[in-house]
Amino acid sequence: LGRMMERAGYNLWGFHNNSYTYYDRNLSFPNMGYNWIGSGNGYEAEKNSSGNDIWPQSDLHLIDTTFDTYKDSEPFHVYYMTVSGHVQYTFTGNSMSLRNRDAVEDLPYSDNAKAYIACNIELDKALESLINHLEEAGIADRTLVVLSADHIPYDNKEICDEIAGHTLDENFEWYENNLIMWTGNMTENVVVDKVCCALDILPTIANMLGLDYDSRILMGRDIFSDTEGLVLFRNRNWITDTAMYIASTGEVISRTGEEVPQEYVDQINTIVS
Fold first, then answer.
1. What is the reported pLDDT for 139?
2. CA-to-CA distance for 220 and 202, rounded, in angstroms?
């Protein structure tokens, strides 16, 4: 997306409230066209009373200390990589959980589940602040905000089970999440209920913004198109709007209540393969 936006004349920034070199992002993000700023190369991390960086850092602080960097440089494209929702999910090992503890104190969950919700409240606050900044600057109506999840909380499934109220199915349900897109001039909510995945975000945004790209080199599908949704997994499980398929057993689960033709299953398996 960075290079697409760059070719279209956008000014690019990437901000992260963790080490700017983690996972070699000091190499990958500039390679994608971003002016990359994180803790260690320009981002001022919050400190504790001992002078050490708190963990995790505040997403609200991330928004509030970086917005002025780009607000007057339209058109801009900004990639925020947040970290407030990161492990550990305890009130002793997570500064954001502790910061928002009062907001979850009365919830009917374990302390770990409360801590999980509490640290993610910091992202809610960050988004509220971002929207306020955009509106105060008079540019909310022409700014697209996209919120996408990074990954599941790998080692804390029991927390998600507790919040969901049942044991999440590990083939599909465990991975469910939401993609949220917003702009200030929306007049009504638009809900897309077909299946989609992270691969679909890039072509969707590119089409929304009229960016030029070669669709043959992207695996994803425009979420707003009338093409059937497809989600594929590394183990070759897949989900479409018609069915779910478990590759290890060959089980086909209809999502429409109607029998799924074998020809359809074979077709999707070929695409996934």
1. 98
2. 7
Q: Among all chains, which residue has been given the structure tokens 């919050």?
A: 46
Identify the pLDDT of residue 101. 98
In our burial notation (b when 16+ CB lie closer than 10 A, e otherwise), range 129-155 reads bbbebbeeeeebeebebeeeeeeeeee
**pLDDT, tens digit (0-9, with 9 covering 90-100), for 153-198:** 999 999 999 999 999 999 999 999 999 999 999 999 999 989 999 9
In tens, the pLDDT along 220-252 reads 999 999 999 999 999 999 999 999 999 999 999
Residue 225 CB contacts under 8 Å (≥ 6 apart), including other chains: none
**What one-character-per-residue DSSP string does the chain give?**
-HHHHHHTT-EEEEEEEEETTGGGHHHHHHHTT-EEEEETTTB---B-TTSPBPSSPPHHHHHHHHHHHHTTSSSEEEEEE--TTPSP-STTT-HHHHHTHHHHTTSSS-HHHHHHHHHHHHHHHHHHHHHHHHHHTT-GGG-EEEE------TT-HHHHHHHHTSPPPTTTGGG----EEEETT--S-----S---GGGHHHHHHHHTT----GGG-----TTSSSPPEEE-TTS-EEESSEEEETTTTEEEESSSSPPPHHHHHHHHHHH-
Residue 224 and residue 203 in contact, taking contact as beta carbons nearer than 8 Å: no
> What backbone phi and psi angles, to 5 degrees, belong to 15?
-125, 140
